[in-house]
Amino acid sequence: MYAFPDWRAAPAENVPAALADWLCETGSLTERLIASGRLFAVEVLAQGVEPAWPDEAAALGLTAGAPALAREVRLTLDGAPFVYARSLCRADSPAWAGVLARGSRSLGLTLFGEPGIARHPLNFCAGLAAQSALLARARAALPGAGDWLHARRSLFGQPDDALLVHEVFHPLLAEVTPS
């Protein structure tokens, strides 16, 4: 049985400085990845209705196991995966269902390109992939990432109808710099 991440207001103390720079980015992660000068792409891994994990349900104001519309992707540069993302909202969300049904287009272009979409503060976690469902899925999606991973998440939109976005970073992202 997996535990669920202990989300905190600051990154873990053991995160390398270059990776912390990516984790703490408050702007569009998509735009920053594109600015690396490498070929950026979004690969959809899964999409559909599934039960929200307890920590996700709490963040979205749902009961644990309530149906949620989820989208899982990996963000790649030159074909190599660097970020695993899991985004979800209420299954009946009028605001976010269409946003999640975007195929291989990045959510970041909408979340940071549309006026009026509020982003709530970032939260962070780090841990062993074997101990967290989120980190285990990320490890499977990010070959060579190792067992210890760093992640962040934030809510977008209104508290009564929010989109929760998780992003787990491959340690090698620390070596990528915008051009």
State the end-to-end CA separation: 42 Å
Report the average pLDDT across residues: 92
| Element-level helix/strand string | HHEHEEHHEHEE
Sheet/helix structural class: alpha+beta
Unreliable stretches (pLDDT < 50, length at least 5) are: none
**Overall helicity:** 10-25%
Largest sheet: 6 strands, antiparallel
- Report the portion of residues in β strands: 25-35%
Number of strands: 6
Assembly category: single chain
Protein architecture, described:
The protein has 179 residues and is α+β, with helices and mostly antiparallel strands. It has six helices and six strands; from the N terminus they run H-H-E-H-E-E-H-H-E-H-E-E. It is globular.
Summarize, please.
This protein is of the alpha+beta class. The chain has 6 helices and 6 strands; from the N terminus they run H-H-E-H-E-E-H-H-E-H-E-E.
Defining key terms:
34% strand; 6 helices; 179 residues; six-stranded antiparallel beta sheet; alpha+beta
Any chance you could write out the topology, listing elements then pairs?
Layout: H1 17-23, H2 29-34, E1 40-51, H3 54-60, E2 67-77, E3 80-90, H4 97-100, H5 107-111, E4 123-128, H6 133-141, E5 148-158, E6 161-169
Antiparallel strand pairs: 1-2, 2-3, 3-6, 4-5, 5-6
